[in-house]
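Good morning,

Attaching, inline, the backbone tokens for the sequence recovery test we're adding to the shared suite. The designed sequence is right after.
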């Protein structure tokens, strides 16, 4: 059996975190990607949480 300590990826990130990960200067572009269906997000209270898996898929597909 191997002792393995892996990196745990988050299930979701905030819009501001997504913008930072994508290298955007502000969050407007992230909201546009959500609105146009390029990345998935869900609203939790007053904030949107962006699916990390969908963010990875978007980056890999660019």
């Amino acid at each position: 059996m191997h002792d393995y300590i892996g990196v745990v990826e988050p299930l979701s990130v905030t819009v501001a975190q997504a913008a930072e990960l994508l290298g955007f200067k502000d969050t407007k572009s992230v909201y546009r990607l959500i609105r146009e269906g390029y990345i998935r997000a869900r609203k939790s209270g007053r904030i949107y949480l962006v699916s990390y898996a969908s963010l990875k898929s978007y980056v890999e597909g660019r």
